Amino acid sequence: MQIRGQRPERTEVDRSLVTIPSREAILEALARDSIPLAELELAKRMGVPEEAQEVLHRRVNAMARDGQILRNRKGALLIAEKLDLISGRVNGHPDGHGYLHGDDGNEYVLAPREMHQVLHGDRVLLRPTGIDRRGRREGAIVEVLERAQKRVVGRFHREHGVFFVVASDRRISQDILIQPDSIGNARTNQIVTVELVEQPSRHVQPIGRVIEVLGHATDPGMEIEIALRKHQLPFEFSAAAIKRAERYTEAIRPAQRAGRTDLTTTPLVTIDGETARDFDDAVFAERDGRGYRLLVAIADVSHYVRPGDAFDREARERGTSVYFPRRVIPMLPEHLSNGLCSLNPNVERLAMVCEMSITKAGRVAAHKFYPAVIRSAARLTYTQVAAVLYQSAGADAGIDAALIPHLRCLDEVFQSLLNARKQRGAIEFESSETELVFNDEGKIEGIRAIVRNDAHRLIEECMLAANVCAAIFLEEHDHKLLYRVHAGPTPEKLDNLREFLREFGLGLGGGSKPTTKDYARLMESIKDRPDRALMQTVLLRSMQQAMYSPDNEGHFGLAFPAYAHFTSPIRRYPDLVVHRAIKAVLAKEHYEPGDWRALGENASMTERRADDASRDAVQWLKCFFMKDKVNEEFDGTISAVTSFGIFVQLEALFVEGLVHISELGSDYFKFDAARHELRGERGLHTYRLSGKVRVRVAHVDMDLARIDFRLAD
After folding, report:
1. Tell me, what's the pLDDT at 8?
2. pLDDT tens-digit profile of 466-489?
3. Is 707 or 37 the better-scoring residue by pLDDT?
4. Which of 552, 587, 611 delimits the end of a domain?
5. Which of 377, 435, 385 is nearest to 409 (CA)?
6. Does the residue 527 lie in any domain?
7. Cα–chain-centroid distance for residue 466?
8. Would you state the torsion angle of the CA atoms of residues 199, 201, 204, 205, taken in this order, to the nearest 10 degrees?
9. What pLDDT is stored for residue 83 in this prediction?
10. What is the four-CA torsion angle of 241, 245, 246, 252, rounded to 10 degrees?
11. Residue 632: which domain range?
12. Number of structural domains, the chain?
């Protein structure tokens, strides 16, 4: 990993000048030899010089990711098609069976007997064996290529003199046996971490040893400890990173000011939620002729976190900060995230600034980036700013009167950006968020809705504008970057959406390639319908998940042709990468973090991992909250429809549970994925997404973090 100038001295091989065999040539070489080849042997037979073997290694890895070639247990290379084998990753199911997400793009069912030799997440070679009675592809595992589980968290048990651990991740359905001399201080029903000393095989269960006793499942904060280990989240910083953080002082030295614009007298402010602890963005606006000058100042994390250093290695591994109820696992040590890189009020901080000239119509007429020294004039909250701008609270909101004209100018900028958003047709979905309420003992005592106001949207629009400028700036200077990509609907999802809409006499414009404006027009046409919540949910689910990629496919939902993440380098690694690229351009250099595609894939994975971990912790807390409400009745809304039942969200409590299909009545129900409904054959009952039902809490399973409902009588 390095930053190098445009004209580097040729002290090492310039990889851009190295010629390596094409993918086709590599496949031909492997086919010609008819035996598995080690990578070094392949390089030798193809005449690849030693200095080019690292580039060959990257190409081989890319071919392995795409499923063109496979590596056996010894690391030798094989042609996938020639073996008639499929590589892929195993996804376990609590019932004991599993699925293989094949590199060929297909999904294969794995019977329980096949799952006995693997654990969730393992990478395997599979031989397709046919089609099951439900029309699904089946397969048999030929070889395990990679073991994903080295440590497992779960509940410790002793039954009939046998010690074992039941994994908290129910996708691991096998019990892990523990030898009597490997239980440590574990006691029955405690939550422990075990290290696997023997992986499963066809005839042997996995065997482990207890390396950590976490406590009892109901101990405060245990849900977070479990989630951290279940999802293999790094949560402790290395001694090297902590030591490096302690070397930095709060005061900005004269040398750090060199080459930076002094904005310490500009009244930038941070605007965040009441409970925020790190402040990575500050804003300021003023009138400039017939338009506006908008400054978005972002903490200059890249000044402290250098490519390849202890901070960088750990930040790259984490990918993002993880937000749990009452606890944050930061991407960077707190000395940085809550200190040097947090734009706290009335202290000088280093920042990267995006300065924009914005017209009355909300168009960004010009933009530029530069490093600066800033001094935040105030730490404001959304509630305070909304009170001043939209409730005429004035000084009663606790804001310095000198700042209020600047806030009003920010609101004018927001209104112009909002107008431009509507003009380009960006989709605006109504969203609802909740927060958990805890008592002094750390126990959950309630769940309440978070009320969003226009101050939230004001900051969002300013950040969106800066993010777009970052992407455009790097494109203009022909520098690679990680885009935040949000592709349009797939053909299959689009067909299902159109079929659903036809039933309601609605249509989506745009033919086979609808635009964001087509979605926005449809959203506008249904805004007064009583079933608009249903329509919005279906429209939202027709879209693909956003991800990070060096290939620009635009951002469909926001209707931006190019979009990147620039505004949160404290908590997102892709933003840090974008900062480094911008700095490199300003210095007339080039930033090269390595394999851009692999970097984007890792960032997308860590984002999903963090979301899954947070969701698990919240779900467990909701189960704990509901465990004393068994047999109580509540009104709810159908939040999802599946082949095995309906999920219902309670309207008063914001808690979701399952009504199994067997509890829906004495009828045969047909699942219609396109219509998002379960319809009884006799036509007496139909359950559709967003429908209203009244349910009774039937059972709360704390181990599975699952809530079961029954329809109320």
Report:
1. 37
2. 999 999 999 999 999 999 999 989
3. 707
4. 611
5. 385
6. no
7. 21
8. 50
9. 66
10. 160
11. 627-711
12. 5
